[in-house]
Amino acid sequence: MVKKTLRVLLAALMILAGVSHFRTPHPFVRIVPSYLPAPLALVYISGLFECLGGLGLLIPRLRKAAGLGLIALYFAVFPANVHMAMNNLSLGDTPVEPWLLWLRLPLQAVLIAWAYWVSQERATTR
Known about the structure:
The chain has 126 residues and is mainly alpha-helical. It has one domain (2-119).
């Protein structure tokens, strides 16, 4: 029951985050490192994959692939999170304490573990 609840919660968070990339992309564009091309396109692409990953977690046949896809996405967006921390950037108009931006980086590991755990089926014993 806990796993199912956490799966649905992660799916909802990913879908909401993905939709926000389309509704208000500019805060996300701001944190894309300058060495990456086409920041707006990257924001839309990451938003699309957040939505797809979230939806995939809810579909048993797609769950494992969705979990692995979300893990890949978390690795892919990590440079933006580092850029955000190094340059003291916030997603909104309200400044964020720099230590919170740095504290956010280990959250990626939590998200990776979370996505992996909720996307794996329990092994059956013989």
